[in-house]
């Protein structure tokens, strides 16, 4: 395993001068209505401070939303095609400035560069998908009228107003933008509250949106402690798109419910991976490495429980353990290492506790299980456990780290049953040599996405398909038409060509009732028989 010191990296690069100066410029974007306390932002690479942000107050939030609301009234009059063109330009800029963005993501999160790249790729794809498909999804739609020929109905879609986006630290670039892009395209303004540990990448994106031509105040960042700024934001906006932990998600949903605004909640997962008897063990092992250890396992879609048909168990485990032991933990600002750091000391303690309590309860450690202070203060080795007690924390709760448990199962039925034995239902994967069999198994799994022969990318990156969770993994969907439709109010405009839908003058109510009953019968038949 690599022994690259994070401290040395910070000293050796030009980061301290040029990059930290850039962070200071970015922090200056945040507008407050008075002097505010300053929150220090530290890099997990060395646990040193890299900048500071204001701890905004409820008043700052109210003022930001007011400005956003005023900008939105103009923005909704801009054609969808013009909005789409600005977002496409923004996608281009993200690709053009990728090196700077990757540096900021790595600095804030400590993730490896090749995991950071997934974030940079995701945003332009989201822009292009909604720029290409948004205009038709938002176009007025003709629907069948109440009485064919005598009436019609058209549905129009209006933006909601101001959307609040509350995003977490693990994918700070992707998750600050993936919900904001369709919201803006639909004609809304967005006020985003990033996690206080990772504010700078959201600010860098706000800069690029301005450069792409987005009018002022339409996308704003407010910073500060989630428990203060989050509720203040939910009280001011017309919709909230939240990504984070399940318990915070419940409080967000409660508040949104009280305010009678809609919300989408992308929450945690305890994602199962099923390796069937006809799977290629080597391929499945490669998938397990990618799935379980991307972003050091701090990925809501990552598999944390692997159920392997007992006929493939030994081969799979050999391949998986071998490949995992070859992974290099490192903190370079290039593509040298496989896995970066965890986000901070509290999270490292929580991951370590999951592993240590599992081992104390009889689990076997086949790889990892150690911190790596020689690499960085919060680095932890990719870890594989077997013989895990089904009631231990690591078996039931989301670990959100580079830790996975592997379990033999007697066949596909047991694999499905154990996969579904969870309160969560975010993402699953099925590994098989027969894709049709994989699809049939997928239908039995209680998760919002089920990927076949890939751990998560094939589902997440299918921009045209919705993404979200069952059960404790959340509400609502991002991506696809559903990810845009959540941000509009549908209005039905119905027209009668024959005046009021009532008995015409001179026709008795009895005759009219008979006529209407006959007509209703014909209409029901037509509705059933005609496509
Ligand atoms: P949290 O729920 O603690 O935080 C998420 C965001 O919510 C942060 O910006 C946080 O602010 C803010 N927040 C905190 N308290 C409140 C509140 N009372 N009201 C409104 N907002 C609040 O989650 P984590 O940061 O710990 O993120 C990890 C979790 O997120 C994991 O469980 C993971 O599974 C889940 N997640 C889900 C994803 C998905 O797509 N389904 C993707 C990524 C993560 P601050 O931290 O600044 O105080």
From TrEMBL:
Active site: 266
Domain Aldehyde dehydrogenase: 36-493
Alphabetized InterPro entries for the sequence: Ald_DH/histidinol_DH, Ald_DH_C, Ald_DH_CS_GLU, Ald_DH_N, Aldehyde_DH_dom, Aldehyde_DH_NAD(P)
Single annotated GO MF: aldehyde dehydrogenase (NAD+) activity
Documented EC number(s): 1.2.1.3
Biological process (GO), any one: aldehyde metabolic process
Domain of life: Archaea
Keywords: NADP, Oxidoreductase, Plasmid
Family: Belongs to the aldehyde dehydrogenase family.
Name of the protein in question: Aldehyde dehydrogenase
């Amino acid at each position: 395993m690599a022994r690259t010191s994070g401290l040395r990296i910070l000293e050796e690069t030009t980061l301290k001068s040029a990059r930290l100066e850039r962070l200071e410029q970015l922090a200056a974007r945040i507008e407050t209505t008075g002097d505010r306390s300053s929150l220090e932002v530290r890099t997990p690479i060395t646990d040193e401070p890299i900048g500071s942000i204001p701890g905004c107050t409820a008043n700052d939030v109210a003022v930001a939303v007011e400005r956003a609301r005023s900008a939105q009234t103009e923005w909704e009059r801009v054609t969808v095609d013009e909005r789409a063109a600005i977002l496409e330009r923004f996608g281009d800029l993200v690709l053009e400035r990728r090196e700077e963005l990757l540096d900021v993501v790595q600095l804030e999160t400590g993730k490896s560069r090749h995991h950071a790249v997934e974030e940079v790729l995701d945003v332009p794809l989201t822009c292009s998908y909604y720029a290409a498909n948004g205009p038709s999804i938002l176009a007025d739609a003709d629907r069948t009228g109440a009485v064919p020929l005598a009436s019609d109905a058209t549905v129009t879609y209006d933006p909601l107003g101001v959307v609040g986006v509350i995003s977490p630290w693990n994918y700070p670039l992707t998750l600050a933008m993936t919900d904001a892009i369709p919201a803006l395209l639909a004609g809304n303004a967005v006020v985003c509250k990033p996690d206080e540990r990772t504010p700078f990448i959201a600010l860098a994106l706000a800069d690029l949106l301005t450069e792409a031509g987005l009018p002022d105040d339409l996308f704003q960042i407010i910073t500060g402690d989630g428990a203060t700024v989050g509720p203040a934001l939910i009280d001011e906006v017309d919709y909230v798109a939240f990504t984070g932990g399940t318990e915070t998600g419940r409080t967000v949903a409660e508040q949104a419910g009280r305010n009678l605004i809609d919300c989408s909640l992308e929450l945690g997962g305890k994602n199962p991976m099923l390796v069937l008897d006809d799977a290629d063990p080597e391929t499945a092992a490669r998938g397990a490495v990618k799935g379980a250890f991307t972003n050091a396992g701090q990925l809501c879609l990552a598999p944390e429980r692997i159920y392997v048909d007992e006929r493939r168990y030994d081969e799979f485990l050999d391949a998986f353990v071998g490949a995992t032991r070859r992974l290099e933990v490192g903190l370079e600002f290039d593509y040298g290492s496989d896995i970066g750091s965890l986000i901070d000391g509290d999270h490292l303690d929580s991951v370590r506790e999951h592993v240590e309590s599992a081992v104390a309860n009889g689990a076997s450690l086949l790889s990892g299980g150690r911190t790596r202070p020689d690499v960085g203060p919060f680095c932890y080795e990719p870890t594989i456990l077997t013989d895990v007690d089904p009631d231990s924390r690591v078996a039931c709760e989301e670990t959100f780290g580079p830790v996975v448990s592997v379990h033999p199962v007697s066949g596909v039925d047991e694999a499905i049953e154990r996969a579904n034995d969870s309160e969560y239902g975010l993402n699953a994967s099925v590994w098989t040599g027969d894709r049709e069999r994989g699809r049939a198994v997928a239908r039995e799994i209680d998760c919002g996405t089920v990927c076949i022969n890939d751990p998560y990318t094939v589902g997440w990156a299918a921009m045209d398909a919705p993404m979200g969770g069952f059960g404790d993994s959340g509400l609502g969907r991002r991506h696809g038409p559903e990810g845009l439709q959540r941000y509009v109010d549908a209005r039905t405009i119905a027209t009668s060509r024959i005046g009021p839908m009532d008995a015409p003058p001179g026709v008795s109510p009895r005759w009219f009732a008979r006529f209407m009953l006959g007509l209703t019968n014909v209409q029901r038949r037509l509705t059933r028989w005609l496509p």
